[in-house]
Backbone:
């Protein structure tokens, strides 16, 4: 509670967020959770849900890094050598997610995925299984 004491309520900031997001792709780790929360707030305070495409670095990790035992943000950061000094805080996790996505761009390019539409489809593709 101390961390958010005095911070504006969601109803005050959601119009600015929606304007900032515009028609861009919404990117997050576990994107559906965050997206649904924000879309609900948009509906409640602005009268319409979000309709942006979503790109989820957790879904991408499941497909690109099947060898990782956990796809939690911290484990994916460790895999890519990213230090999230503000873990579990909005800004720290957002910066870490952006850095992860940049690393993932290199990996998907090697797989021949070179455009956004292909990447959005890839995140929903069948998850490879490791054979032991």
Residues:
């Amino acid at each position: 509670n101390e961390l958010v004491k005095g911070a504006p309520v969601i109803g005050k900031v959601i119009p600015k967020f929606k304007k900032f997001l515009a028609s861009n792709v919404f990117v997050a780790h576990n994107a559906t959770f965050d997206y649904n929360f924000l879309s609900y707030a948009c509906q409640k305070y602005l009268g319409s849900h979000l309709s942006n495409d979503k790109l989820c670095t957790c879904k991408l990790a499941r497909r690109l890094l099947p060898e990782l035992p956990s796809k939690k943000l911290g484990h994916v950061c460790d895999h890519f050598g990213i230090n999230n000094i503000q873990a579990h805080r909005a800004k720290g996790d957002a910066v870490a997610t952006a850095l992860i996505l940049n690393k993932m761009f290199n990996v998907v390019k090697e797989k021949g995925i070179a455009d956004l539409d292909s990447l959005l489809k890839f995140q929903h593709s069948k998850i490879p299984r490791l054979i032991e």
Summary: Helices lie at 10-21, 31-46, 57-64, 73-80, 90-110, 116-122. The beta strands are 26-28, 54-56. The chain has a mean pLDDT of 93.
